[in-house]
Fold:
Amino acid sequence: MPTPDSSLPVCVPQPVRSVGVSTAEHREPEAAAIEPNKLAPWSVRVLIVSARNGHAVAARALVDLLSKNSLRDLEMDCSELIGSLLPLLGTEDRAKDGGLSVRSAAIQDLKLALSMGKVDTVAEQMKQDKAWALMGEPGQETEGISLLTRALMKFAAPILPSIVHRVWQSYGLLSAGQRVCAAAFFSTLLQNQRLMGRKLLASVIEMMLEVCEDHLEETRILAVQGLKAVPVSEIFKHAVVEMAELSGALCMPKVQGKPLILKSIICLRTVLQFCPDKLIPRLFPKAKEGLAHEDPEIREAYVLLLGTMLKTSSGKRGLRKQLHGSMACLLLQLLDPSPMVAQVCQQTLRKCVPAVESYAFSKAFENHFSEDTYVYTPLIRDATTALREKFPGMMSVYRDVALEFTKSPQPNQRASAAVFMGALLERIGVFSFCAASKLKKALSCLLSDPDRGVQISAEQSLAGFP
Structure:
């Protein structure tokens, strides 16, 4: 019986010999016609995925494949290959077998990719900076990636957008260590943004704003470091686009608009920490309106947005009105019909208690919250009293928020507004006659509200006044 043809690839089945019939007659012409380099295009992609999953054997096979084939054989361009290989530097091996680790093999692969793409100047710069050695040391790979990124920006700028796109394309599939490497790449790009075009800069800013929401702390730190290096004006432009998209999404049908609304709010919460002075005055009215949205998940997102405003505006004199307005909105939202939104609201308020710097305010939360019981109406009353005593100069802000809530389509917001106004009027002397009259008139209108709960709240608030 003849031995199998060793020139055929392993994955191609050998022809089967039948009794009494020559093997040549049964040889499949398709299998015989396949050449090894024809398998390279899909083999390289399979090996990259396998190496990403921690298989060192696949990473070493990838070195062999790249050394024996050209980019044309692989049907890949240099940027796609580099973008696919770069995250492998953060891969942990699944098993130690004494051979090259995934990280060491990935370094060899990157060298081959740079050579194949005729960007040897990048490899030479890496050698001068001793970056290859840094990449191989545990805990130093991010520094090595930073040096690689700078070299690519300096000597291979034309292919950089494609590399960025490729790395970001696979970001959601990466492990923790691989995401750290990808984040280090993007962070270095932003820290050296003078070498990037405006279009690429805008794309990387958008990517890093999403990375800021990663549950992994190290990636978030890298994202913030990169974004802090970007001029505020660039981030503000991105925020304005997100606000426009948010406004557009609010006008769309529920099924289509909801994912866009939630995405925009998440992005805006991230952007706030970089340019609060410019954004909060614009965002506050939108956030206030959003609390009346019919979808509880969207109301919850707006509650978290107000909480972010509270934290970022703390200590900034120019944002005092928005800080106290956000606090008043969150207090009034405690009576939300959705238990989940109400709970998120009280948790957000408790986190923001230090921003108010009032002992009486923090005491109100301790008095009315236990582990299992949440009593919201007394809390609104006591917390409002604490704010009124501590910040008499903000009474006009509290009054305006309360009056707006009385016009809400949501009964719970009208009821909480009645409780809030009653607590404000307990010290009527801090208001002008005109302002006090407006509050009393609003409460009187709520007595004829179609919702009985709102009527009761208004009656209780007016009980002490003639």
Q: What stands out?
A: The two ends are 112 Å apart (CA to CA). The chain has three domains: 1-26, 37-228, 232-462. Residues 1-36 have pLDDT under 50 and may be disordered. DSSP finds 27 helices and no strands in the chain.
